[in-house]
Amino acid sequence: MAPALANPVEHSPSLEPVGAKIYSYNDATTFTILDTRNKLVAYTGVVAGGVRGVATEWGSVFVLGGHGTLDFFSEKDLLEKLDILYRQNLYPLAVKMAQNGSYDLASVAGIYKRYGDWLYAKDDFDTAMSQYIQTIGFVEPSYVIRKYLDAQRLGNLTSYLQELHTAGMATSDHTTLLLNCYTKLRDEERLNQFIHTQEDYQFDVDTAIHVCRQAGFYEQALYLADKFSKTGMYLKLKVEDQDDIKSALEYMRKLGDTDFSAYLAEFGRRCLSSLPRETTELLVDVCIKGMDARTAAAAAAAEKGDQNQGSSSQRAVSAISPPLLSMRHIQHLFADQPAWLAAFLEQVIARRWQRKSPISGLVDEEDNDMKSAWNTLLELYLCGVESPLNEQSSPSERKQNPKQRALEILRGSHTSIDWDRAYILCASNGFAEGIAALYEQRGDTAALLDLFIEHNDMHNMRKLLDKHGEDQPDLYVKALHYFARNPQLPNSEEMLSECLETIEKHSLMSPLRVLQALGGSDQSGVTLGMVRGYIMRQISTTTKRIQDNKSVIASYTADYKANMEKMEALKNKPVVFQSTKCSSCMTPLDLPSIHFLCKHSYHQRCLGDVGDSCPRCQSDTQMLEDQRRAQEQSAKQHDVFFDKLQRADDGFGLIASWFSKSPFAFAKLVDQ
Question: Which UniProt key words apply to this protein (predicted)?
Answer without folding.
Answer: Membrane, Metal-binding, Zinc, Zinc-finger
